[in-house]
Amino acid sequence: MYSEIWEDPRLSYAHLNICTTNITLKSDFRKNIWTPDTCIINSRYSSIHNSPTENTFVILYADGLVWSNFRLKVKAPCKMDLKMFPFDSIECQLIFESYSFNTDEVRLIWHENPLTIMEAVELPDFELTGWCTDHEKLRYPNGEWGRARVKFTFARRYGFYLFQTYFPTSLTVISSWIGFFFDVRAVSARITLGVSSLLAVSFQFGNVLRHLPRASYIK
């Protein structure tokens, strides 16, 4: 869920002295009023849920305050450093910016409670360990734009790799030591055991690499 709140005095209806303090309107109402034109500039893909209709609403308050809410799906890149794999962590961020208005007209400010996690985030490979928000300003040729950024930190769940890679590899290496107890004349047995252990370790290493992004450093 993504919410935006801004104030537009032109939409105030306090002078009408009606009973209600706020009015809930359909999403089509946004097309007829001024909006901050916020976008997620680092997103690769984003869409508003439709189940069965568009999951948005607009609430207009008597003093001209506008609250717009979306049920949003966003795909954005994450920063990964695989040098400590599988004991690594990744950082994902969403950067919000007004597409049309610079800081002379729109300033993006986080609410005092900027993020609410309703229930624990459960992912097969990662665990959410923290999040933070901040602001920054970026100067373009036609002015200065403000940005609001939220960062999520995820730690990789390494249990799968311990049981599927580390433990089998350790057992393979330990079993290769049996060759030291063979008779010195059992050359073929020593060679067979050594080559088999080497092939098993190489296969396990290659199987792990197939599931990792390509990187120019040792993982």
Automatic annotation (TrEMBL):
Keywords: Cell membrane, Ion channel, Ion transport, Membrane, Signal, Transmembrane, Transmembrane helix, Transport. The chain crosses the membrane at residues 158-182, 188-209. One of its GO terms (molecular function) is extracellular ligand-gated monoatomic ion channel activity. Residues 2-157 form the Neurotransmitter-gated ion-channel ligand-binding domain. The keyword Ribosomal protein does not apply. It comes from the Eukaryota. It comes from Onchocerca ochengi. CDD domains: LGIC_ECD_GABAAR. Belongs to the ligand-gated ion channel (TC 1.A.9) family. This is Neur_chan_LBD domain-containing protein.
